Structure formats: structure tokens, C-alpha cells
Amino acid sequence: MSRPDRVLDLLDFLRASDPMPVAQIATALRVSRRTILRDLALLRDRGWPIRAEPGPGGGVLLDRDRGAAAVHLTIDEIASL
């Protein structure tokens, strides 16, 4: 699997799950823990809101409270911009 495909799979995995330990993500995607850490760093560098929650029940997750949100403007609002 190429790196771009793997990173897209990682994003899909993060979108669909609750916080999950890096080791568990690595097992699910059949790569090493270190590979997941590199891919997570790449996504963070590209602006994806990825964070980690420490402790039992914690793990890596895509922060759904941050990031781009859809903005719906009327034609008049668009024209005034």
C-alpha cells in the first residue's frame, strides 16, 4: 500500500472511531506503531485537528470540534463580499 493510500485510510479510521491507542490503530491498518506516528505527524503538519487523550480509555482521535465548517451564504451575501 502506498503512503498516500495509507494516510487516507488512517483518516477514514480516525473519522469513524472513538479515541484509540496508536498500537491498536497500527494493528488494524497492518503497519508498525512508528509508521502510524509518522503518518499522524504528517496529518498534524497539514493542519488536521488530531489530538491524543492520555490515560485509560484515551488514545488518538480526530478533533471534531475543530477544523473547517461549512458556511452557507446567500447570493446577496456572496455579492457583498
Largest sheet: 2 strands, antiparallel
Read across the widest sheet, the strand sequence of neighbours is 1-2
Class computed from helices, strands and strand pairing? mainly alpha
Estimated radius of gyration: 16 Å
Helix segment count?
A: 4
Poorly predicted residue ranges: none
- Shape estimate: elongated
Question: How would you summarize the topology of this molecule?
Answer:
Elements: H1 3-16, H2 22-29, H3 33-45, E1 50-53, E2 59-62, H4 75-80
Antiparallel strand pairs: 1-2
Helix pairs in contact: 1-3, 2-3
Task: Describe what you observe in this structure.
This protein has a two-stranded antiparallel ribbon with strand order 1-2. Helices cover 51% and strands 10% of the residues. It is mostly helical. The mean pLDDT is 86. The protein contains four helices and two strands; from the N terminus they run αααββα. A hairpin with a 5-residue loop joins strand 1 and strand 2 (59-62).
Provide the descriptors you would attach to this structure in a database record.
single chain, 81 residues, mainly alpha, 2 strands, elongated
Give a nutshell description of this structure:
This protein is mainly alpha-helical and 81 residues long.
